[in-house]
Amino acid sequence: MNHRLPSSIDMASATDPAHPCGLLGDTPERDYSRKLQLFNAFAEPELRLAIAGLALKPGMRVLDAGCGTGEALKWLHDAVRPTGSVVGMDLSAAHVRVARGAAPDSVQVLQEDLTRPPLAAKSFDLIWSVNTINHLRDPSAGIGTLAGLLRPGGRIAIGQSSLLADQHFAWDARLERLTNEAVRRYYEARYGLTESDLRHVRHLLEWMHLAGLAHVTARTFIIERTAPLRPADEAYLLEAIYRGTWGERLRPYLTSEDYTELCRLCDPMHPSYALHRRDFHFIQTFTLVIGEAPARHDSSLVPT
Prior knowledge:
alpha/beta, 7 strands, 35% helix, disordered C terminus
């Protein structure tokens, strides 16, 4: 289950918060800036490693589609300056306000819908989009729209957390499995989704091919944390997951005994607090799928 949810989605009903336009309840008014900031601080080493692997060069033009609170805008800007440029785009007005405050002055941040971007076709060398495509009702079409913004030979890099289940409680696989299942059931009930809806993001490679992208590759990074944790790691796990994703909302989906044990493990004041255990061992995946816009004379894409 993915817990990190930057938003850029179809705005057909975006002006009506009672009728969210994406799978996971996003509207221009929705604000989960704190959770996004916590995740970006937590995963910064791996996110920056992923960006470094793209071998960006000065002079390139880059779009962060679903930029959230904008931490990656500076990392991307650092890779293409002084002659390159970076544009950020997100649906949420609150996220855009935070991103504008965090981004370098030369970076433009737009509050826009990525499925209807007010940007020129074939104008970017790279599109970076993390934990965003999973919000779209039609992710294949969304990737196709983004692909249309690429120059010939340009690349799109789609990042997605937790294609595999996270490990939180290395010492209690049963409770971990039940907690993950409870999160899935909560999302199904809240948003009227099926398990297939929630896991369809595993089709990323298929969607990239359907968008006509070439040379599609995937690389998975392991986000691994052990005790003692960095302050950024503990803040993210406690605030965004233990309190912000789990907590009271999971009570209906667990037995009273399992819910009580989960609460003990998530309570910093309890002796059993998971993040203070010497054997705490957290594992999460971050997968980056990259596709390339065909060059004008790419013979590898000619049907045989």
